[in-house]
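agent> Task received from the user: take the single chain below, predict its 3D structure, and emit structure tokens. No templates, no multimer pairing.
agent> Plan: (1) validate residues, (2) run structure prediction, (3) serialize to tokens, (4) report one or two observations.
agent> Step 1 OK, no nonstandard residues flagged.
tool_call: predict_structure(input=
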Amino acid sequence: MKVYLKNPPLSHAMERVTTALIQYSGGFRIVDDMDSADLVVIHTIGFPETETLVQQLRARRQKYVIIQYCLRTTQRPSTIDWLDIWKGAEFVWTYYDLEQLFLEDQLGQGGPAILKTLADYGIRIYRSPLGVDASNFRPWDVVKKYLIGTSGYVAESEGVLEANSAVLALGGQQFHLGPKDDRLENVWYQSGIPDKVLAQLYSQCNYVAGLRRGEGFELPAAEAILCGVRPVCFDRPHYRDWYKDWAVYIPEGSPEEVTRSLTELLATSPTPITPEEREAAVRLFNWATICHGFWSMLQQPSVPVKTSKSKRVLLWVGDAAVSTGFARSTHGILDTLKDHWEVHVLGLNYYGDPHPFPYSIYPTRTATMPFADAFGTVRLPKLITKLKPEVVVLQNDPWNIPEYKKGLGNVPAVGVIAVDGLNCRGTDLNGLKKAIFWTKFGETAAKNGGYAGPSAVIPLGVDLDLFRPMDRLEARRGLQFPEKLWDAFIFGNVNRNQPRKRMDLMISYFAEWLHTSKVNDAFLFLHVAPTGDAGYDVQQLAAYYGIANRLIVCEPDIGLGLPEELLVRTYNTFDVAVSTTQGEGMGLTTLEAMACGKPFIGPDWAALGDWAKKAMYPVRCTEIACTPNNVNAIGAIAGRAEYIQALDLLYRDASVRQDLSRRGLELSAESQYRWSNIGQRFQEELDTLFFTGSSVTVAGA
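)
tool_result: status=success, residues=701
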């Protein structure tokens, strides 16, 4: 096959793409004349010129491939407008999640109840990053000269002006790859230089910018990583997908906001790229692998055959793309399962906004009808008809499972069940192929309540690369605490503001301790995100108990919460983490607090009395609390006197705090709480559903 590859002018990245495709073209013949080619590779950055060229190629009956560099910044930013062009292509190569963008565009137009995928139109997607030549781009042992390296031709859209303002504010120097701009000062310009020279210049930078607004891949960011330099990118899914934790991310705000963010960042010393990080990046950005994948797409059938799936289809029903413990579980587990299954998610509490996850998430809510199908029970049977999953995973409370079972048809279902008290309605779970519980307490309560099917116990996890101890004063300053709180003693509670969490008891116990102990430097920090159901007015309660001036409150938006980095800072402002919950299914915030080195006081009941007991200060429960609304789960109340004693002990005895901190760090570091291991456990449990004789058919094999 004769292939025409010529790229548009003024694009260094496209030139690299063309060079790499030629280098690894194998048996394909690259020609310089478009008219003589059997196939034309179209480097797409705009709509009108692409549409015109496609019409010409169709008239000449020439095949074509689209490389989609730009979409949202083109004259036609909706995927729907591109369908005709993409349908005629052999395939589309892109670094964007086009399926997710297509879903968003359908929802934006008030899409049908059953949303379509690009595959439904016969459109084939090759999703891949761009590549980097690791033999040229490597770390150089040179002196750091530049606060930041920038690149590009359009300073306004590529963060160049904002970077220069930050550099000037700090009295530093800037390296720029590209033409001279008279508006910039203290800049060393270069262009048209060999890659090895460019690698040396990157190595002289503290940071390298990948700050294109709107969309992009920003190849200099990948090249910088291989040179051992942290890139700084806008906090957008299309950057996080590829640059993972290797980059530093800032909000894509106004020029003034970006300048402030960059000034703060460039004033800090960057963390070097580790050898392990560079090795992983070398594998991801390997031109040989990327180009072999490209050329192999031309050797596959043009229309995918849906009866020959390479992976089994899994439909996960649970919280997604929101700030909840259920959502943490969803994404922590699916991060492993996506490698073995074709994953789709019916996202509870999800409104359809853009997200960074590499699988389709179907919303159950809209801005105008937030509670129309809150649990997804209406949409579930429609998605089952559309997606034809081999298994459905239902992650929810036991009393919600019966409504889901009505819409399953003959599809086997696995339950991931949160059990936060005794008197569990286990009979509601019968009919599931398997029930997975987070704790042994939960499994036992369900069986005592009548569940008779297969079960397993798999806990939730914590990311120790994110949740880790940090300096307390740094955390408090970072959250802009007033100076009077820098040396204060803070008890902290991170939980949802809902009745089960018993914030009323937390405030009452803390107030009684304050009044009786006469302590004048202790504060209660409540990080309490509302859930949309009944909760407590914590500030009014604190005023009633006479401690309004001892209460710190953070109330993130419903479902959104804080970025995880700020949540880590929140934990690290605490001296002691506390909870007066009447019962937990797992108590994920307790595990996160322990991973941050915080001693923990909690009730000896349900999940906390199970997995967490050996690393916390357990308070005996003296009375029951039954969950209303016909749920009837039996929770328990931590004894007032003993809880107040615990507050006083941990306030006064640093040795007790240090011992609990050590035990919490050791417990949270156990391998059973790593998300990768948890995902593998789930994979093994799902495999047991597909036994054939003495062998297991593994999804994706």
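agent> Step 4: summary for the user.
Confidence is low (pLDDT under 50) at residues 302-309, 691-701.
agent> Done.
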